[in-house]
User: Fold this.
Amino acid sequence: MYREIFNTEFNLEFHLPKKDRCDYCEEYRVNVKPSEDDAAKYNGHERAKSEAKSERDIDRQRHTGSKSHAVVCFVLENVIGLPRANIKNFYFWQKLSVYNLTAHCSVDGRAYCAVWCEGVRGRGGNDIASALVAILEKIIVQNPDIVKITLWSDACVPQNKNSVMSFALLTFLSSHANIQEIVQKSVLQATARCKRLIIYTVRLNGA
Assistant:
């Protein structure tokens, strides 16, 4: 009865978060006459995307129910402009940028967020590394049986492809004797499947 009333008598629906498209996919989509070489590169690109998704899904399924091995997907969300207002001049001139690094942990199924504003720090490699370590600290407090961590992120350089992040994770590893291993995995620009959709779905489910 409730489902019928909700679906038929109310003008309501669940919002599905948008997915980002990479530059390469968008370039191929608008290419009216792609060459055979373009098509071959695009097909290879799609295969890489599928392989990355399969690898991530395998990681998550393999360790489902495990209390000792955590698969953590993290991503920096879109910049939040605060406060919100509909006044033109105020909208463009009086914005404070707020950053939100979100992560999902497979062990407890929870979403974790590190939130800060531009008045505190920016969004460079040091800032992302500090936010991620803060999240990992919270995760191991909530789940003390974790001994191995697999990190998944997209191809954003501050999130994985830099020495600062590697050093931060090494420091975190050395300061927690119970953590035996941390594995970093990332995907191509277009294959970033550890997206806000995961985090928002978890939050909506009340985790």
